[in-house]
Amino acid sequence: MKTNIFKVFQYYRDKSEFIKQLSGDEFDWKFVINFCIYIIVLLFIYGFVIGIYHGLSQSVSSGIKLFSLFILSLLICFPTFYVIQIIIGSRIKLINLIAIILSGAMLSSWILVAFIPIVIFFMITGGNYYFLQLLHIAIMAFASIFGMKLIIEALKYNCENEDIYPKTGVTIFRIWIVIFLFVSIQLGWNLRPFMSKHTEKFQIFRQYEGNFYTAILYSFDKITNPQKEEKQEERLPDENDSLNIEKLKLYK
Question: Helical H runs in 125-235?
Fold first, then answer.
């Protein structure tokens, strides 16, 4: 079976045929490898756009870290999911299960890339750091919904038409998605920054206290109270600025 970077759009042209192909024996591991390559390319492009807010170095770093985030999260979570499928009596082949999950990931990746013009528009028209940060999170959540929908429909097809996937497997997959989400969030927090302020130096990794959820609330607060940050910046000298060290000592 031929595959290319646009293959996943067959899902919308002929949904039943596309899912049938994913569940059949018409392809080998080359199909899966191609899907992995396409996902890496698409996620790198979107990650590159995320980082361009700060500069070229951050763009390349963010592109690499975004597809690394997906691959690492999948490697961490997939073995548990596959073993559970065997325990509950699933007879779906490993290659088919991987192909189904990668198809959903590829669809989500395409949706991310489709949002790039909108992201660039807000960058050009003055979208601030905190707004863009929340925008990227919203776009990723939106894209993930479509990817999960494809995977669930493919698993249901194997349950209802092929009789090789138990109904409980679909429920377990939904639970696994929640686990995958939490692992991805924690891993993403450890891989930050993906996007940095203009005033910050380039960093591959950053040491922050707190967590992802407090960072979201903080970004909301900065958007609703923009003057608070300006006053804080006026009151506290930058520790990274050698010219302000004496002022900082006096303030402390």
Answer: 129-160, 167-191, 212-224, 226-235
What is the widest separation between alpha-carbon atoms in the chain?
Answer: 74
The predicted model scores a pTM of 0.80
Across the range 112-131, mean pLDDT stands at 89
The domain limits of the chain are: 7-205, 209-252
- 70-74, 178-182, 213-217, 224-228: lowest mean pLDDT where? 224-228
Determine the Cα–Cα distance for residues 116 and 105; give it in Å rounded to an integer.
Answer: 17
Neighbour count for residue 33 (Cβ, 10 Å): 12
Q: Which band of pLDDT confidence, cut at 50, 70 and 90, is reported for residue 128? A: confident
Contact 97, 82 (CB under 8 A): yes
Q: Flag whether pLDDT at 32 surpasses 70.
A: yes
CA distances from 151 to 101, 166, 215 (A): 6, 15, 30
Q: How far apart are CA 207 and CA 192, in angstroms?
A: 9
Report d(CA 142, CA 54) in Å as an integer.
Answer: 24
What are the b/e assignments for 161-179, b being 16+ CB within 10 Å? eeeebbeebbebbeebbee
Amino acid at 15: K
Question: Are the CB atoms for 127 and 151 separated by under 8 Å?
Answer: no
How big is the CA angle at 107 (ends 71 and 44), to the nearest 5 degrees? 50
d(CA 248, CA 233): 12
Percent share of the chain, pLDDT over 90: 35
Q: How far apart are CA 207 and CA 187, in angstroms?
A: 13
User: In this predicted structure, what is the pLDDT of residue 249?
Assistant: 47
